[in-house]
Amino acid sequence: MIREIIKDQFLLCRKSSDATVDDLYIIDDLKDTMNAYQESCVGMAANMINELKRIIAVKENDDILVLINPVIIKTAGHYYETEEGCLCHEGTQKTKRYEKIKVQYHDDKFKMKIKTFSGLTAQIIQHEIDHCNGILI
């Protein structure tokens, strides 16, 4: 189901709690909502659709990759300044990101994974993990 994008900064600043297998229903809503905003959306965190759970969805090539309870366990490469936009607010904001990250997470079947991401995908994941931590860019 396509969900409304939350723009209330007070709600978005709250930290999300770890997701469980009972929260897997959120994944379909995240994907549906991302697809509805596909022209301007490359990633989405569950709190953006009013679900305070640590679930993010990220466009990777032509697919949507779901990361449940993602944790960055290692950073590498250049730490660079960039500007990012978000569906939750107008305009862009400057921020700093790592070029490469190693992330531990559960996939959409709740299987534990560890994967290294780089470039734009790494940047998007860092943005969405910030959402899970109540950090707005």
Write the topology of this structure.
Elements: H1 9-12, H2 25-36, E1 43-45, E2 55-60, E3 63-86, E4 89-106, E5 112-118, H3 119-132
Antiparallel strand pairs: 1-2, 2-3, 3-4, 4-5
What does this structure look like?
With 137 residues, the protein is α+β, with helices and mostly antiparallel strands. It has a single domain (9-132), classed as Alpha-Beta Complex (Peptide Deformylase), CATH 3.90.45.10. The protein is 22% helix and 42% strand. The protein has helices at residues 9-12, 25-36, 119-132, and strands spanning 43-45, 55-60, 63-86, 89-106, 112-118. It has a five-stranded antiparallel beta sheet. It is globular. It starts with 8 loop residues before the first helix and ends in a 5-residue tail after the last helix.
Overall residue-averaged pLDDT value: 96
The total strand number stands at 5
Order of helices and strands: HHEEEEEH
**What name does the CATH topology carry?**
Peptide Deformylase
Give the oligomeric state.
single chain
Radius of gyration: 14 Å
| Major sheet details | 5 strands, antiparallel
How much of the polypeptide forms β-strand, as a percent range? 35-45%
Helix content: 10-25%
| Terminal Cα span | 26 Å
Strand order of the largest sheet: 1-2-3-4-5
- Text of the CATH class: Alpha Beta
CATH homologous superfamily assignment: Peptide deformylase
Number of domains: 1
**Regions with little confidence, pLDDT below 50 for 5+ residues:** none
